[in-house]
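Title: Prediction job returns without error message
Component: structure pipeline
Severity: low
Priority: P3
Assignee: unassigned

Description:
Job completed but the reporter wants confirmation the result is attached to the right record. Sequence as submitted:
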Amino acid sequence: MCYLYTMGSRLVNVRLDQGRLRKAARLRTRGIALSDLVRDAIDLRYEELTGPPVADDVRGRLARLLARHPDPPGLPAREYDVHDRRQAREAIARTLDRGRGKRRG
């Protein structure tokens, strides 16, 4: 037996910052219906979530994360080699000890 659940049409309000508002206006002047754009985005994201699992792309995820949250400008270089686990461990321990007011001996 098959049950079909239907849902009535819903209006969705979305707050846009000035940059996205300008982009939306330009898309509309080019004949692109924002409602179609939103529907396509929902479908695409849903397929990503429910589709077959894809092998983890660690480098790709890290690149997207760094692109989305870049280091602030003028950040000084580290005083240790971040690829050397011993140096990194010692630097982290020093930072944590400073925050706790302790000293290593």
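Comment from assignee: result matches the submitted record. The chain has a mean pLDDT of 84.
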